[in-house]
Amino acid sequence: MNYWQRYILGLLLCLPLWGIAQTPAPGGTAKIVDVDYSDSLWVDKEMGATFLKGNVRLRQGNVVLLCHLAKKNDLINVVEAYGNVKILQGDSLTITGDTAMYFGNTRLAKMTGRVVTLNDRTSTLKTRKLDYDMNTRIASYNTGGTLVDKTSTLVSKEGYYNTNTKIFNFYKNVKVNSPETDLVADSLRYSTLSKDVFFIAPSKIVSKSKKKSVPGDTLLTNSGSYNLNSRISNFLGRSTVRTQNYNLTGDSLFYDPVTQIGIARGNVEIIAKKDSAFLTGQIGRYFGKTGVSRVYGEALMRRFFVKDTLYVSGDTLTSLEIRGTKDTTRRMIADGHVLIFKSDLQGKCDSLVYSVADSLMSFYKKPILWSQRNQSEADTIFVRLVNNQLKTMYLKRRAFIIARDTLEQFNQVKGRYITASFNGDSKLDNTLVEGNGESIYFARNDKNKPIGMNYVQASRMRIHFRENEVKRIAFLGTPDGVLRPPKDVSSDNRELDGFVWKEKEKPTREKVMRLPERKPAVAPKVIPTASTKK
């Protein structure tokens, strides 16, 4: 053995034998790694080793190993390879690195280097240490790696790649970057064929916006899939999409950022950011390009003011963006069994339109409204809020207002049209009655004692109230009326035709929100004792 051979042998003997003891294949059927070619070769029979140098080519079945220097141990069927190591499996997989250990019995390769590269034609994986099982065709690493394909770059601390199914499992500090998307997750699965990302842990997806002034959509989920090509999401479990104007959340969520269509199911929440409005229900649909959001099933809207909240419930709630040349306003529509609750206004109807810009609420289909101790009915009712307080109410056709005073008397006004004005405390201030006007009000003297009931008919009248008591009335034309003393007031003449006091139907906050009604407190029973009897 010359000097050069002794030097190479000493170098190889000093290098550590990586890996673990192999378990021979059952029945000793494991194939020995064969030598195809090398520039020089020598055998140490005592060690049971073959040393190869220069253009080394080894083979086991469909696996080919190329390197500059190799030590092949025939006793344990292990190869140590050094210098520009390349492992080929078939014609579709290539692994390159600086050094490698190949265990022939288990067909496991362990590759290290400054950059270890795995290429299977669909993608390229780069890391510093890589294990590859030729039987299962699974590659794994735990020192950080980067996967690059035609559409994206994926980075993680750990990873497992099945080169048969083209499915990659990433773990710890996963980041995905594509031309359209940035994604951050703790763990995920990725198909290099379909470009589908499958989430198995909390994940965040941020769409890149073409306009710097407009933020991209953000998606949050724990489970489901996302396609990096189409950018379509199908999420399972609690998930959220955040757009510039809306947040959409549900127990399951579909979202397409290209068409800006989102569909959520189960405990749905939609937040209209600019209008401080919060919609909930069981099914939610969002159409970003048209600015339409719709909620079905136990639908509820909450709009928050500085010192109050407006609650609206119905079978269906719809939010519409009214896009003008300069500004965008919003209109809320409720349909089917509509209930509303606000501290100074409660109501029910079958259809409601709420224009947010001018604070105008329109009630259709048998509306009834309550404000303080007042009840209002008509075919259609329009309500305007000023500084989020009730200011004006316009009742159209078959209008009827009942005001309950402090003596529990019912002052009444009806006509074809009624315009009711309220003061700063949302209390009834005056009413303008137009067309077939009728009024019943209970008069009092200066000592607040009842002096009788006034019944008045006029085509047009204006009635002024204070604390729901009539203080002044003005007529246009000649009125027809009568003052009945208290002794002549009876159940037959104290109510206008159509009078029905419906206070029991007045919605509470709990009823609008579909919460259990609060039960009034009941005083505890006192059991008589000798002391209490005394």
Automatic annotation (TrEMBL):
Gene3D superfamilies: Lipopolysaccharide (LPS) transport protein A like domain
Annotated ranges, domain Organic solvent tolerance-like N-terminal: 38-186
Keywords carried by this UniProt record: Signal
Residues of the signal peptide: 1-21
GO annotation (BP), single: lipopolysaccharide transport
InterPro entries: LPS_export_LptA, OstA-like_N
GO cellular component, one term: outer membrane-bounded periplasmic space
GO molecular function: glycolipid transfer activity
Pfam family membership, one: OstA_2
PANTHER family documented for this protein: LIPOPOLYSACCHARIDE EXPORT SYSTEM PROTEIN LPTA (PTHR36504)
Protein name as annotated: Lipopolysaccharide export system protein LptA
